[in-house]
Amino acid sequence: MNRLREKIESIVFAGLKPGQKASSATAPPTSFIGRLRHRIDGWVSGGPGPSDPLYLTNRTTAQKVRAWIVIGVPLLIVVVGLGVSLSSLLDPPKPPPAKDLTPAEVAARLLPDLKDLKLQAGADIEVVELRIDRTKGLRMVGSIKNKTTHAIASADIACNLTDASGTQVGALTVHVDNIPASGIRDFEMPIKQTEAAFVLVQEIQAR
After folding, report:
1. What digits encode the pLDDT tens for the residues 119-134?
2. pLDDT one-digit tens code per residue, 42-99
3. Is 30 helix (H, G, I), strand (E, B) or coil?
4. Was domain 119-206 assigned CATH 3.30.70.80?
């Protein structure tokens, strides 16, 4: 009965007792390929296991610290990488707020050829405002200023109408009467060109 128990224990606890060699151990290979494979297998498996069953408890402080470093450093790197990727540190800088363009800049972008346009304005009359208005029907509204110290009986303003891309869509002449000395006279004129977006003054004639 004791022999049977010993036989069973030797089979069940094979490889767990310190110093005991596995019964299936084989001699190291003699060929070059076999030796190379044997070395690679040993490197992958980490070498032969410790024979001391309490090797974890009997480790030195340096060995314990090294084990924690091997496990903790990669984990710390992963945690830090996830934190940085989820934070706003890697976000591109916010673009500066868009600057509102002045009317002159808008006109320069829509009508780039305006810089080469020469207006023939009267010496006595100055156009203060001239635009397309759609609040009360489609019309051209504006105002002119008398730069002299005497009243001007009338003035004719020749204009071209263009669309938003700068293409001319029509032409007209506005007649304004009784412009007071050093004063401003408002005027308006209905137009039919629904695509008109800008008004360009071509000539001013005072009478």
Report:
1. 444 578 888 998 999 9
2. 665 555 555 656 555 666 777 677 777 878 788 888 888 887 777 766 667 777 776 6
3. coil
4. no
Extents of the domains making up the chain: 26-67, 119-206
Torsion sign across C-alpha atoms 106, 110, 111, 113 = positive
Tens digits of per-residue pLDDT, 17-37?
A: 444 444 444 566 677 777 777
- List, in sequence order, every beta strand (DSSP E) within the chain: 125-133, 139-146, 152-162, 168-179, 184-190, 198-206
Q: CA-CA distances (angstroms) from residue 189 to 115, 129, 175? A: 27, 13, 9
In the structure encoding, which two tokens stand for residue 136, read together?
A: 């009360």
Residue 72, both tokens: 């903790």
Q: Tokens 């000539």 label which residue? A: 203
